[in-house]
TrEMBL record:
Keyword vocabulary terms for this entry: DNA replication, DNA-directed DNA polymerase, Nucleotidyltransferase, Transferase
EC assignment: 2.7.7.7
Chain coiled-coil ranges: none
Protein name: DNA polymerase III subunit delta'
PANTHER family for the chain: DNA POLYMERASE III SUBUNIT DELTA (PTHR11669:SF8), REPLICATION FACTOR C / DNA POLYMERASE III GAMMA-TAU SUBUNIT (PTHR11669)
One of the GO BP terms on file: DNA-templated DNA replication
GO cellular component, one term: DNA polymerase III complex
Organism of provenance: Methyloversatilis universalis (strain ATCC BAA-1314 / DSM 25237 / JCM 13912 / CCUG 52030 / FAM5)
Length: 349
């Protein structure tokens, strides 16, 4: 599936025709549909009928193999942790109890290199889809490097990365980078409206402009608190930080013991970081990038502080973000976090 905001990249690649590079690095923020784009491109390269800018036909013998996840010339490489369906509740009770690896290991890459040493099963292209590329450790990246330097004929490598700076420079230099950016807010909001997402502006803001994450947020537990969060940081957290801390602490707990809460601490800290970043922009007479629909509230906060103070608060959040994953006491963590936040806006300029 190719989302509307990814169609320019599709046209760009299809215009290359036979000059398509042997390795592409699809780079950009998460939640934009890069993996869906890569899968559509892989299907297009293997399809027996598609021509020009057409997507895979979905009907030929090759497309039927793809639909059944049985195409021998489509190779997917990803960490073991991504192989497991999140809906498989019994997974934790099986096996030897060891956590699945979040890295792409050298053995996986070597297996791919070995398969590429054999000719194409269907007599056409072979596609290697590898994601997330930043999950490769140094050894696995170096194992892939030789194939990128001396690619087998009729082979396309598709690497997907949300954090391309984490890749080895040698990997980046041997791929053609195809960049993806968040669509304009109006386009994203129109798409979210078509998906039936309520409070789309807040959802899009909390997800840093990534429409797919915003859609998923609307269907998650976090959707129940997104509006309250924004109202809290805009008003109540300034005068009653401890009361807000108590409410947020309640979000972290399930209704019954052992049940998951409505959200988690790292998510709340990330949302607050994005909110403060927009306050900084308005304090510098710039426009907000994330909470576009909350400009009035952001402007009021910008008037109550100054750039240096808000930047200091933002940098403090960067330092405490790591602690949010393993706090000794979540309630105390939130109280400290919100009291620090309230102090940023006490003194008028």
């Amino acid at each position: 599936m190719i989302y509307d905001w990814c169609k320019p990249q599709w046209s760009q690649l299809m215009a290359l025709g036979s000059r398509l590079p042997h390795a592409l690095l699809l780079a950009g923020p998460s939640g934009l549909g890069k993996r869906e784009f890569a899968e559509a491109l892989a299907a297009r390269m293997l399809c027996e009928r598609a021509r020009g800018e057409e997507q895979a036909c979905g009907e030929c013998a090759s497309c039927r193999l793809i639909a059944g996840d049985n195409h021998p010339d489509w190779i997917t490489v990803r960490p073991e942790a991504l192989e497991e369906s999140p809906d498989d509740e019994s997974a934790d009770d099986e096996g030897d109890g060891k956590a699945k690896s979040t890295q792409i290991r050298i053995a996986q890459v070597r297996a791919v290199v070995e398969r590429l040493g054999v000719g194409s099963h269907q007599g056409g292209y072979r596609v290697v889809l590898l994601y997330p590329a930043e999950a490769m450790n140094v050894d696995s990246a170096n194992a892939l490097l030789k194939s990128l330097e001396e690619p087998p004929p009729n082979t396309l490598f598709l690497l997907i990365s949300d954090q391309p700076r984490k890749l080895l420079p040698t990997i980046r230099s041997r791929t053609r980078v195809l960049s993806f950016q968040q669509p304009p807010a109006d386009e994203a909001l129109a798409w979210l409206a078509q998906q039936g997402v309520r409070n789309a502006a807040d959802a899009l803001a909390l997800c840093a402009g990534s429409p797919l994450h915003a859609r998923d947020l609307a269907g998650s537990r976090d959707a129940q608190i997104q509006g309250q969060f924004v109202d809290d940081v805009a008003r109540q957290a300034l005068s009653s930080p401890l009361e807000v801390a108590a409410r947020w602490d309640g979000w972290l707990k399930g209704k019954k013991k052992g049940e998951p809460g409505l959200t988690d601490l790292p998510t709340l800290v990330t949302w607050l970081q994005r909110w403060l970043a927009d306050v900084v922009l308005l304090a510098q007479d710039c426009e907000p990038r994330v909470f576009v629909g909350r400009r009035a509230q952001l402007a009021q906060l910008a008037e109550r502080s100054d750039v240096a103070t808000v930047l200091r608060g933002y940098n403090e959040l960067l330092k405490v973000r790591a602690l949010a994953h393993h706090p000794l006491n979540a309630r105390l963590f939130l109280e400290d976090l919100l009291m620090r936040y309230a102090r940023l806006f006490r003194a008028a300029r």
